[in-house]
């Protein structure tokens, strides 16, 4: 084989090339090339024709058999409980323990909230002009009055 370089011919055997530049090794080969002997999996036909008739002449004799992975997704036969498991659904069916200690007759008016009664409801909260709702503890009330521990103690 000869290459045309300008006006003269050079034989490829006469050209001194480094073997490392002539042949390159693929450091990360594609495993699909080993299995399919092709560069792209989509090029491979996953079916085989049955029969020897020409395409388009007799559509009744044109049959194929699919091979390999099916195109449809295989769904698991196990039904997955998406939001509730059977165990938690069983817990929802069990009667709960009443929270309130007093039983009140049901009223005909709809309530805007469900009152939760507990042991703390026995004592009504102390309301003052500093604590009108009775939600502050004793140290917060003292701090609002300007009393309480000095800065060095805290």
Overall description:
The chain is of the alpha+beta class and 154 residues long. The protein has a domain at 2-66. 16% of the residues lie in helices and 10% in strands. The chain contains four helices and four strands, in the order ββααββαα. A two-stranded antiparallel sheet has the order 1-2. Strands 3-4 form a two-stranded antiparallel ribbon. A hairpin with a 2-residue loop joins β1 and β2. The chain starts with a strand and ends in a 10-residue tail after the last helix.
Task: Please describe the biggest sheet, giving its number of strands, its sense, and whether it closes into a barrel.
Answer: 2 strands, antiparallel
- Ranges with pLDDT <50 over ≥5 residues? none
Strand order of the largest sheet: 1-2
Cα separation of the termini:
96 Å
Number of strands: 4
Mean pLDDT, nearest integer? 68
Structural class by SSE content:
alpha+beta
Beta-strand share of residues: 5-15%
- Helix and strand sequence: EEHHEEHH
Rg (C-alpha, Å): 43 Å
| Share of helix, binned | 10-25%
Number of helices: 4
Shape assignment: elongated
In short:
With 154 residues, the protein is α+β, with helices and mostly antiparallel strands.
Topology:
Blueprint: E1 2-5, E2 8-11, H1 19-22, H2 31-36, E3 47-50, E4 63-66, H3 86-93, H4 138-144
Antiparallel strand pairs: 1-2, 3-4
Keywords: Nucleus
Main location: nucleus
InterPro entries: NRDE-2
Record keyword descriptors for this entry.
single chain, two-stranded antiparallel sheet
């Amino acid at each position: 084989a000869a290459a045309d370089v300008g006006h003269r011919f050079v034989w490829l055997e006469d050209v001194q090339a480094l073997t490392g530049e002539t042949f390159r090794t693929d450091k990360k080969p594609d495993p699909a090339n080993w299995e399919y002997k092709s560069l792209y999996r989509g090029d491979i036909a996953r079916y085989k024709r049955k029969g020897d008739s020409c395409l388009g002449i007799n559509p009744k004799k044109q049959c194929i058999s699919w091979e390999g992975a099916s195109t449809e997704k295989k769904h698991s036969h196990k039904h997955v409980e998406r939001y509730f498991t059977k165990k938690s659904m069983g817990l929802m069916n069990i009667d709960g323990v009443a929270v309130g200690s007093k039983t009140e007759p049901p009223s005909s008016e709809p309530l805007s909230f469900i009152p939760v009664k507990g042991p703390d409801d026995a004592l009504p909260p102390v309301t003052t002009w500093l604590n009108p709702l009775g939600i502050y503890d004793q140290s917060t009330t003292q701090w609002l009055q300007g009393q309480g521990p000095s800065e060095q103690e805290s």
